[in-house]
Specification:
- There is one protein chain.
- About 10% of the residues lie in helices and about 40% in strands.
- The protein is mostly beta strands.
- The chain has a 4-stranded antiparallel sheet with strand order 3-8-5-6. A 3-stranded antiparallel sheet has the order 11-10-13.
- The protein is globular, with a radius of gyration of 20 Å.
- Keywords: Lectin, Repeat.
- GO terms for molecular function: carbohydrate binding.
- InterPro entries: Lectin_gal-bd_dom (IPR000922), Lectin_gal-bd_sf (IPR043159).
- This is SUEL-type lectin domain-containing protein.
Length: about 210
């Protein structure tokens, strides 16, 4: 994958911060939390797995399962940021964040607050010193159509193959241009037998 900033005619992305979204998913093992941005990319601001009140996801639950309102699993926001930052759509199964039980006997939920950063793009002929800034990158497969030409269905059917990576940001941030190979040898193989691609969300910023 090649990311480039052209010094003569460059597309400059203007980042506009919009209001923060909040999504709550009750902690049943089959539940999946869905984050999405109609424009721009996801930036997770905060996340809680546990319980902060006695009402959320409390319908039909006995009072003793709602009593502890200071229940929070440490590191939840890091999991969400690693998996979702820089994507337009992100789905997280509750089992992914349930790495331990912060409060046994308490019915928990996942609450995520995130912001969408839409990129308004316009053509500029100014000679501005800009460099690449990577929001996030993911190596794997999240749909059946991207990079699917002449591929058998068996290689594109797994759309839950996601491997967030910081390698693109580590290699490309602060540079005018950047080339990185989208291959298993660079990013590992998150889903054997599935044909994968590298998806990068980035913009150009002033030095």
């Amino acid at each position: 994958m090649w990311l480039e900033h052209t010094p003569t005619y460059t597309f400059i992305s203007v980042i506009l911060v919009v209001s923060t979204e909040k999504v709550i998913t009750c902690a049943s093992s089959s539940n999946v939390q869905h984050l999405s941005c109609d424009m721009g990319v996801i930036s997770v601001q905060a996340a809680l797995y546990g319980r902060a009140d006695n009402e959320t996801c409390g319908e039909g639950r006995p009072q003793q399962q709602l009593a502890n309102t200071e229940c929070s699993l440490e590191g939840t926001v890091d999991i969400l940021k690693k998996r979702c930052d820089g994507k337009k759509v992100c789905e997280i199964n509750i089992k992914v964040v349930r790495t331990s039980n912060p409060c046994p006997g308490i019915y928990k939920y996942l609450e995520t607050k995130y912001t969408c950063f839409p990129a308004t793009t316009f053509l500029s002929s100014l000679h501005v010193g800009q460099v690449i800034f990577v929001y996030g990158a993911d190596y794997g497969r999240r749909d059946q159509t991207t990079c699917s030409y002449k591929r058998p269905a068996s290689q594109t059917e797994n759309v839950y193959c996601s491997h967030p990576t910081s390698k693109v940001a580590d290699s490309c941030n602060g540079k005018n241009s950047c080339t990185i190979e989208a291959s298993n040898s660079v990013f590992g193989d998150p889903c054997v037998g599935t044909y994968k691609y590298l998806e990068v969300a980035y913009t150009c910023i002033c030095k």
